[in-house]
Known about the structure:
Elements: E1 6-15, E2 18-28, E3 33-37, H1 44-51, E4 59-64, E5 70-73, H2 85-90, H3 103-112, H4 126-138, E6 144-148, H5 156-167, E7 172-176, H6 180-186, E8 189-194, E9 197-201, H7 208-226, H8 229-263, E10 284-297, E11 300-313, E12 317-322, H9 328-335, E13 343-348, E14 354-357, H10 370-375, E15 381-384, E16 387-390, H11 391-397, H12 414-427, E17 432-436, H13 444-455, E18 460-464, H14 468-474, E19 477-483, E20 486-491, H15 494-500, H16 531-558, H17 563-566, H18 568-603
Parallel strand pairs: 3-7, 3-8, 5-6, 6-7, 12-18, 12-19, 14-17, 17-18
Antiparallel strand pairs: 1-2, 1-4, 8-9, 10-11, 10-13, 15-16, 19-20
Amino acid sequence: MAPPLLALKDARLTFGGRPTFEGVSLALGRGDRACLVGRNGSGKSTLLRVLAGLIDLDAGERFQQPGSRVAYMPQEPLFDPTLTAAEFVAQGLSHDPHDGDRSHLIEAVLDEAEVAPDRLLANLSGGEGRRISLAAALVAEPDILLLDEPTNHLDIPAIEWLEERMLGFAGGILMVSHDRAFLNRLSRQMLWLDRGTMRRLDKGFPAFDEWSAAVLADEDAERRRIDKRIATEMVWLREGISGRRRRNEGRVTRLMQMRQERAQRVSLGTAKIGPASAESGGRIVIEAVDIDKSYATPSGSKTIARKFSTRILRGDRVGVIGRNGSGKTTLLGVLTGAIPPDAGTVRQGTNLMPAIFDQTRASLDPEATPWTTLAGESGDTVTVQGRPRHVASYLKDFLFEDRQFRAKISGLSGGERNRLLLAKILAQPSNLLILDEPTNDLDMETLDLLEEILADYDGTLLLVSHDRDFLDRLVTSVIAVEGDGVIDEYAGGYSDYLRQRRPAATRRTPSPVAAKPAARPRDASPGRLGFKEQRELDLLPKRIAELELEKKALAARLADPELYARSRTEFAAATSRHEQLDAELAEAEERWLALAEKAEALARGKV
């Protein structure tokens, strides 16, 4: 077995008199794909900083193979606003004068991250900051990559880019993330930091629930024999896992029924908007008909929506997705009446009581405490959906400890502040819940808690999120803001959206000017495709299957941790071919879908 490139042995660290962790040993080598899991405040980010050499241990050893390169991407990077993106990324390179000019490496990695090299680091969006920080970690082609919440603030295309980049990465990776889909695809080992101790499993994240449930069941049996105090520390986690499994089946069934109902009202591209009188009184929450929305930019104007229509009824759970900057938040503002459309009509239902989660957490006073935020300066109760609750009990529902009740909000982590804001929002009487990126900085347990609360919510939900697994578990339909005014709606969750999504060339692109009908090809006859197109349609499924098999075989080769060490040329060729296969598959699938839609239209006599 090859020696590790980075390791800890019997590591111990204490903050404020309390051990953050002790007796922690781990080793990382080339090709490792480990995920570090644990609840907020368990010390995951601190452990990454120790591994990066930024914090000294109180006891134990840190080992780094001489000559190896370790790169660290922090959860909340700090940027000097006077620097450009290129200057910041250059800090990730060594300063050895013998290395020569490496500006091409900086330009290449920033091009991958879709950031201009001369972009000043002032007024960065969360997504821009994350991509620049990733570029700085990747530029030196490190041997070990330490990633702390790398998908936070990234949109789905950027997350998928990062996944592909990590699949082709030759070194070892240790990642902290709450994104289940990201971990499911990438991880091959699990490290669980729980109450200061480390557990390891040589399986990927899909095995975590079963593994953790077994560990907790064993501890529960031991607890009954030895220590009753552990019960108070474990009850939230034990009940969260076992209770979730008991409830899962019924919730999934109910979600599927809701999606079927939603599908009856949504067609590809355009919601079915009929007369409002067709709906029973009080059922309509939002009805938008042919709305347009644009806004001015320094370079001209940006179109958010063009001729978009939808109808959202009571109890619908609608996910809103799209690239960062595509206009998702603006669309929410238009639908909820906060922003007027340029054209078209938007009507809200009667007696709406909206509650809004703002991802900037602007409504939280950093000098206040969780207790006073919910109950005021002198109170000890909070009214939750019309019922009184003791504030301590309610805070414990959101996984706060006694010592945090009176702590200043400014001292809470990002995930803890998000939990507090969710507790505040969900206590309000509401029948319309609007959540803008609620999952950033949340750990797995809090995500499970939030999922359960939202699954039991009786009102209507509008959810902006880039968490694909979270969307799949919750929403009944997806509104996709595709850019350039194109907005489509699809019944189901994110996976359903991927299956139904039309290629860019065939998506609805409304225009005030009617296009001239295309001339009919000479080899086509009414009611069917021409010979060449029909043969292409018949052969494409086989071609797609062949490409998928080749991609699967290639992925298995790239997963071999010894491939890079054995032959860099072979590794580079395999990586390049893997990228080509992605492009060829996308092209073949889009072509098949276009031909299939054309054949169906011809059969109906519409072409």
